Here is the input.
Amino acid sequence: MFMMILLGGAVAFFVIAMILAAGSPASKGKNRGSAGGRGSGGSSARTQDRAARREDMRLPYRFADDMLFVHGDSVWTGLVLPTAIDEYLNESELRAMAEGPARGLLNLARGDRNVECHYRKVYRPITAVDWAEQLNAVAWDPTENYKAYNLRKAEYQERIGAMRERNILLVKLGSLKRGSNGDGGVLPGGDDPVEDPGLTRALRGATDRAAASATGVHDEYLSPVVLAQWTQVAREVHESLEGLGGAPLTREELVWLIRKPLHGELPVPPEPVLGSRSWGPDQFDLVVDFSGENRKTHIVLHQYDEVTGERHTSYTTTLVAAGWPAETRFRQSTAWARYAAQNVEFPVEIDMRFTLIPYLRFKDRAGKINGNLIDEMNDMATSGRSPDTKLASQVTRAQHLVDDVEEHKMPGMEAQIRFTISAPDVAELERRRRVLEMQFKQDLKVTLLRPTRQQWRLLQSQLPGDAPKLPIAPYLRLQEVEQLGAGLPTAGTELGDNPEQRSGKRLGWVGNLVGWAGKMPVHYSLHVGPARNDGGGLAIVGASGGGKSSLALQKFYEESESGVRSLVIDPKTDFAQLCYYLGFGSQVNDPDFAHDAETGLLGTEASRFRPVNPEFWAETEVVDLLKGQAGVLDPWVIARDVPSGRLLAETMLRGFLGDEDYQRVRLPVIEAMATVVGWYNSAIRQATEQGLGARDAEQRVPRPTLWQVVDEVVRAYDHAVSTGDRESAKDLKLAQMLLTELRTLPYARLAFAERPQPLSAMRKRRTVITLRGFQSPAASDPRSWNPAERLAATALMAVVELGSQMLDVGYEKNPVTGEVGLRPKALFVDEAYVVTATESGRDLMRRALKQGRSYLAVTVLITQQAIDLVQIEDSEARSGGANQIHTVFAFKQKSAQEASLVAPLLGRPENDLKVISALQELRTGVCLQRDADKRVGTVAVDLVFKEILAATDTNGTTRPSRQGIDPPLSVWDWTFLQEAGESDPAPRPEAEPTAVV
Here is the structure.
């Protein structure tokens, strides 16, 4: 039986005390380790002997900060390597990814000494409660339901065991002790910083001696000067590895990395250790406390609940890669590290210890091995025996290695790769072992063996720092450095929000849970892109029925509840329906409900429908423009200023009439506009001459109107007729006829009124502008639109202009913090292709996207057509600007042609067959995401709650039944989909079945 305790020590010191206890089988696992207690009885000499034995057997983690740690006399540094998703990389990109680790490691092996390294792939459970609390903290004005929403999602993630992959590279810098392990280190010539006559000093004084006797460990001293020198060495190593993009391993992560192997499948306790208080001499913090049993084929690990005393047990075993195929070709599907992480149903941790060998030493080693094999072959031939095939193959491979080393003059490495699995019981552990061995043998042609009676040392070897000696050296492989990268060790499935550190400042945060990429959760918030100085746009594209509306509706709910002022252009009333259901529940199925909704009576005394969630409905406004007053879309009403209004007026008339008719009437229209604007300017001058300021004059003098423009055209025509000016009358006749009729047509009438009134200022959390009865153009090419479609499309563009102006508000006082700042805003545009189909519409979108980052206003474009969005992005790239769409969610496409148009929006070539095929094969609720870091991967959207599934249902067949139940007032009472038993075709995280859409 063994017990291990990890203690944090004086100032920056901490040690591991390991006690091996012998006992009968019946006593195994019944005793727990402690901090090392004073012996009860016996002579003083025996007490000192026991303390000495504890001192000798301890694993000494003597010092750690956020740059290096000291293990015994060895000094190490660590990097946390970023995980890069490789799902849709092409061959050249994959090769670059595979060559990255080799290029970095080669920089370490340029000297004359071997360099010891340790690579670990582990899985750290997501501390989802911390995520939820941080997300709630960055919200502008979160509702209580929003806070509960994130905390419930945190519970959901922890319930299914969501984990994040961690790839860690540890590098041994050298030794603190002169002459100790002097052959290994990163400094040439063994010029390691040391302190003579030593870096430790004996404890002085009776108090110190008593403390050391009680704890069994000695308080040590490391010279700050020497530590500073080693810190500089560590920084230089990090600089040489900067191509890997890693971040320094922190003390907190180091402690977790030490704890992890000693917990197996059990959760690692999150309690803080380092920095919990100021440490003095002989003061320690408990880091890990465990007991276990060293069995022949596995380790039994016990952990105890500090409150209840209940014992929790995990079983763990380690397998060694013992046989590899004679020749391996680099392929994404068979890269050994990637395969273990993504193709096995349970977590497989990787532990790879390797030594980088300088070129001359590597050449010598390879030559000796080749010579020995040739001698063996010659001996067999001399004795009359024929060399077997295996020996001949070994000779060939050895000669190839010698030739490669001589040709490229590159360093090499000696490595051993091990795989660790854990399970809640022995039977499951054995099943997982057999599955892992079988999969590696069948798919990779790699033989995995489980060494017996070596499991404890293999477990120890996973701990950071120097490794124990293992009697399984035959499994060491002498190979080129490139072999590490060929396994794609950093390939993963991480997507979504990824905060950055720039100039010591953290940019961005981890947003709401939107779904899963493989086994990894995907988080996304609209404003993380602008917070990282990226563009202000989000694109959600896909064919009807693919799931894009559900994602858009979910984001609308989340963002508006967080305090983001959200405005929706909602031609199909999907967003209005979400608001109706969350506000009024099952009453939406009443036949009379639609009438009250259309007439704006809901929630008033004139309606019998009362909200089931009054707080939600009080922060919601639904405006039906087609049922509203004429003139609400007058260009001078919705534009920022009069010159902008004139440009918008010309654009709208061109849209309403079509290019051909507009060109025929353009001259009289321009003249009428000039006349009307001239009247306005004269009135402004007169007001200022009377003593008014410029701002007061603008507020007092009515702006021009499109109604006045038409009246001026009619007046000019009447004048031409009355004066007998036939030539002018001929030109004006068509103009007055078309424009007069235009004032009465559907959609167009919204732009004409004698005294137009603007919409009320948007002051609620969410405003939904609907166009009931709106008919989207069937074709994406404006040249194919009929007159009715032109009217609808132009009205929609004007609504988008109106929406962007409504969101252009100044600073506000934060109701939570009291600080003054820009409130985050969001403009959702459904059927966005209708707007972006025209050049004027694309110009409008470019302006909105560019201004979004400055005004904290994100534009969400929801569309079935991607080509127009690609044109917006391409025009920005050609002009030298950055892409304005920071994230894209692409759902199912119906044809290869449509998919090829989406690929560039994802940052992939339009002829990328892998992406084109994937887009056509996506199931409902599954999409391809391009995140702010330009990573592309498959995401299964997860709505999590039964109530959100009902609210976002846009299917006329299933929506009535799902919305037949009132949603509970509090999110704390909402139901997880996995509990509700809702079926859905989308993939689920493999940890545990869950329902997603």
Q: What stands out?
A: The first helix runs from residue 44 to 57.
